[in-house]
Amino acid sequence: MKLSPFTTRLRSSLALIACAGLLGACSEKSGVETVADAVAADRGLAYVSNQEGGVTVIDLNTMATVRNIDTKGGTPRGIGITPDGKTLITANKDQGNISIINAESGELIQFVDIGVNPEFVRVVGNTAYVSFEPSSKGGPPPKPGEEVIEAEDDDEAEEPARIAIVDIQQGKKLREIVGGPETEGIEFSHDGSKLIITNEEDDTVTVHDIASGELLKTVNTESLGIRPRGIKAAPDGSAYLATLEFGNNFVVMDSEFNVVRTVPTGEAPYGIAYNRDGSLIYVAAGKAKTLEVFDAKTYEKVNQVTTGDRCWHFTFTPDDKDILLACGRSHEVLVIDTATLTVKKRIADKQLPWGIVAYPKSVGSLDAPAVK
User: What's the confidence (pLDDT) of residue 146?
Assistant: First the structure.
């Protein structure tokens, strides 16, 4: 029997209502799955390490802080999350350890001793990579051209920084990879075999074999800009980027870690990341108080937004619609619309925020989606 246009529309309307009411019970064949998806969508959570206040949890559906987690470690900086979202890792500067935390309950599972001054954390699978700096003297770095008065014991060679490799399930530091003085950022090669780190004190980017710890290559940035900080790989492994804080630029290396160019930025760039498809590059310029956007092919700056004080690290939301930027000295997290690059909200209840990651794992200056 041939249905009239009215009957057809009526049946479609009834199916739409039923599908929305069932919150996803309808199949893709009904043609109305998107309604249920929209109703049931959960954007996930973001976790912010606060140097003066533990970890705060932001509900990405409401963009509001929903709870606080005491790391028990004091002064958390680097932060990471396991691919299943069950476990948080924070690097605790003052105690020289990391906290392994149940992300759901907020309870401390255990501490793992790392070494003096742990800072940057990357979590891949069930392994945490944590930079620490035995020779760090603390305090702000010297400004360009500023005279440095050395202490009497500075004749001794500085102990190099290291990357501690920790088995999260065992709660055990397995071994260390030796970096350069004051190692900062941590990244991985596209094939997962190499570790790329930035060493701010001696102005180098070094490439290491993960399995053996062997130093494979050293890239000196002194003539291009000093104090390498952030490091990020292109999604396809075709390029690696490192921000040069006192160079006010970032350096572009090819897949073999050869420098191919530098790109000027605002003052004191640190956090850097590609968007998910690798078409754009985002840079947080701390002293310029901007988040800047560059075309990943031409390296031309295409946009920027004014931010806040000491905004270093950021994450995209898992749906890529917003960026959350941690601004330390403003004591806030900015929510930035990626379509318009405008600040849509300020979550101003933070205590010297340092880092931020999202779950489900997302693109950002401190993290990357889990490899499928």
Answer: 52
Tell me the backbone φ, ψ of residue 18, rounded to 5 degrees. -60, -40
**Does residue 23 carry a pLDDT above 90?**
no
Band (7; pLDDT cuts 50, 70, 90): very low
Homologous superfamily (CATH) for 44-138+157-359: YVTN repeat-like/Quinoprotein amine dehydrogenase (2.130.10.10)
> Would you list the DSSP string of 25-93?
-S-GGGT-HHHHHHHH----EEEEEETTTEEEEEETTTTEEEEEE--SSSSEEEEEE-TTS-EEEEEET
CB 275 within 8 A of CB 336: no
Identify the three-state secondary structure at position 352. coil
C-alpha 82/C-alpha 71 separation (Å) is 16
Contacts of residue 121, defined as CB under 8 A and 6 or more positions apart, other chains included, come to 78, 79, 80, 89, 90, 91, 98, 128, 129, 130, 186, 355, 366
* Rounded-to-integer distance, Cα 163 and Cα 37, Å: 42
Q: What's phi and psi for 285, nearest 5 deg? A: -95, 105
- Can you give the residue ranges of every domain in the chain? 44-138+157-359
Q: 153 falls in which pLDDT band (50, 70, 90)?
A: very low
d(CA 209, CA 197): 11
Q: Which residue has the tokens 């003096």?
A: 116
Sign, Cα dihedral of 360, 189, 355, 170: positive
Q: Which of 43, 47, 44 lies closest to 350 in space, CA to CA?
A: 47
